[in-house]
Amino acid sequence: MAKIFQVTARAGMTRVVEPVARGLLRAGVSPNAVTVTGTVGVLVGALGFGARGHLVAGALIVTVFALTDLLDGTMARMSGGSTRFGAFLDSSMDRIADSAVFGAVAYWLATQHQYAGVAAALLCLAAGGLVSYVKARAEGLGMTANVGVAERTERLLIVGVGGLLTGLGVKLALPIALWLLAAVSIFTVGQRMAHVYRQAQQAGHE
């Protein structure tokens, strides 16, 4: 059910993103430029606003710029496929942005003496890195790991909604979102490892 919802949501987003991607390509904007711009926007939202307690503004900025993760990929496909450097740049910028988001959240929660939330934010950062690492390592070994309920965009949207609600007065929304995100991220790591294990077992019997 979660996978069906995820696919449906992404299909809906694709219909919105494609005209924008097409327009940017016609204007001469490259996918790499969108990747860097998206990362800078996330850094501004997380460090410039979120870490200073402006949670509503920070969450909105991070959420908007996190969606460029879909935009640059769509642009790359429309322009004939991602280059090797483009794929490298995208992954590197994602790690920088993720570190800024969860670092900013952990810092702000620490200033509020919400140490359980700090632990959850750090766990999200570690688990999110593992989600990406497992996929990259699998692909480096000639296998795939494109499974799981917690892709990067979904992870940032969850923490963004939590930050937005906390900024609007729902105090426990952000810690709850972080613990939920930590759980689904760890579950996704397990899903990907199991998926790779099945591929390795199948290859061993061929």
UniProtKB/TrEMBL annotation:
GO terms for molecular function: magnesium ion binding; phosphotransferase activity, for other substituted phosphate groups. Keywords: Cell membrane, Lipid biosynthesis, Lipid metabolism, Magnesium, Membrane, Metal-binding, Phospholipid biosynthesis, Phospholipid metabolism, Transferase, Transmembrane, Transmembrane helix. InterPro entries: CDP-OH_P_trans, CDP-OH_PTrfase_TM_dom, CDP_ALCOHOL_P_TRANSF_CS, PIP_synthase_PgsA1. GO terms for cellular component: plasma membrane. Its EC number is 2.7.8.-. The chain crosses the membrane at residues 53-71, 116-136, 156-189. Contains a di-nuclear catalytic Mg(2+) center. It is a multi-pass membrane protein. The keyword Transmembrane helix applies. Belongs to the CDP-alcohol phosphatidyltransferase class-I family. This is Phosphatidylinositol phosphate synthase.
